[in-house]
Amino acid sequence: MLEENSSLKESLRANLSTDEDERDNRPWYAIRLFTVRQKAVAEFLKENQFEVFIPEEYVDVEDSDHHIKHVLRPVVRNLLFIKKDRGEKEIKKIVTESSYKMSVVTKTREDRRYSEIPAHQMYEFQAMCNPELTMKKFLSEQQAHLKKGDKVLVKHGPLKGLTGRLVRSNKKYYLLKEIPGMAIMLKVTRWCCEAL
């Protein structure tokens, strides 16, 4: 367990310490799906040369022989993320002409411009979604807005370098990261965080 934790810590640190020059600074979009065929939609988008991200977590599933298997499954079935690597008009054309019913998340109901997720925010969200990390909770946007907490930077431990809000739930502290469409909370100790 200690070896696993230290390798996870090294992996996160390596990812977070990537030079800004090497990191792609293009924003991302959240895509809301109105179909249960999430994998098919992801394949369609990949065929159209989009970089796609689907948050996943390990769940225990019992097979027909009553054996428990540890399987990687999507956290939500009606949401995925694509990197903005072309103009909004071209993205809109691909999304609307698709045989799959989907829409890009917009800023508000009144403001129909696509809601962009900054690259650094999406990068941290992807790091926090790592299926190897335990003690995390996924939340809807509405649930995340109900949580009160100070903005912090994690200064120590395997999550060093991540930013978010420090929130308390069930007498434990979590680092909360929100993006359009969903949010994630990772268990963290309060002393390793510094207010921003």
Explain what this protein looks like in three dimensions.
The chain is α+β, with helices and mostly antiparallel strands and 196 residues long. It contains five helices and 13 strands. The chain has helices spanning 2-16, 38-47, 88-97, 119-128, 141-146; strands at 28-33, 52-53, 56-62, 68-74, 79-83, 102-104, 116-117, 136-139, 150-154, 163-169, 172-179, 182-187, 193-195.
Give a short synopsis of this structure:
The chain has helices at 2-16, 38-47, 88-97, 119-128, 141-146; strands at residues 28-33, 52-53, 56-62, 68-74, 79-83, 102-104, 116-117, 136-139, 150-154, 163-169, 172-179, 182-187, 193-195.
Outline the secondary-structure elements.
Blueprint: H1 2-16, E1 28-33, H2 38-47, E2 52-53, E3 56-62, E4 68-74, E5 79-83, H3 88-97, E6 102-104, E7 116-117, H4 119-128, E8 136-139, H5 141-146, E9 150-154, E10 163-169, E11 172-179, E12 182-187, E13 193-195
Antiparallel strand pairs: 1-5, 1-6, 1-7, 2-5, 3-4, 8-12, 9-10, 9-13, 10-11, 11-12
